Amino acid sequence: MSSRRKYTRKSNRKQQNTLKQQRQIATGLLIVILLAVGFLTYEFALKKDFEPEVAGAPAARVANTVVDHGQVRVGDYVTTEYEVTNVGDELLIFYGQPYAEVIEGCCPPTVEMDKRELRPGETAKVTMRYTMHEGMDGPHEFRIQLNTNDPASPEIVLTAFSDWV
Ligand SMILES: [Cu+2]
User: Fold this and answer.
1) CA angle 115, 50, 159 (to 5 degrees)
2) Class in CATH terms, 60-164
3) Which end of the chain is less crowded, N or C, counting CB atoms within 10 A of the terminal residue's CB?
4) 135: CA distance to ligand 1 center in Å?
5) What are the residue boundaries of the structural domains of the chain, listed by start?
6) CA pair distance 136, 9, nearest whole angstrom
7) What mean pLDDT do residues 44-62 have?
């Protein structure tokens, strides 16, 4: 009689252990499922409202390659801003640090870029903020070259005109 009870207790414990393991596995699975759902929701939110125009490659689309500030008073500040969007369906990468080349005038400003890699549908801003002092006036033309992994346009040229008076 006593050995039977012992056996029953042992088998109960075994069952409890199995139940515990099953519960742990279920919890683990639930966590994995929740993570997957969260990730997919995030990916979907990013892709929503975006239809790639180019398939199988990254593609850089610039809203405005030329900015003309016209006449600017010496001492005032201007901000030149360009927007580059990845309209392809693969990651768009910009190589190197872009800089302003002087085509006409003097004192090229620093070029700022807020992103160096764009996922499909993302947009990067390329900006320059600058002024000219007395003796540095007259017409100015700056040129920026962006190097990308877009096979259709690996080099993008951006131009900025300003005439300081
Ligand atoms: Cu100048």
Assistant:
1) 45
2) mainly beta
3) N
4) 8
5) 1-49, 60-164
6) 94
7) 86
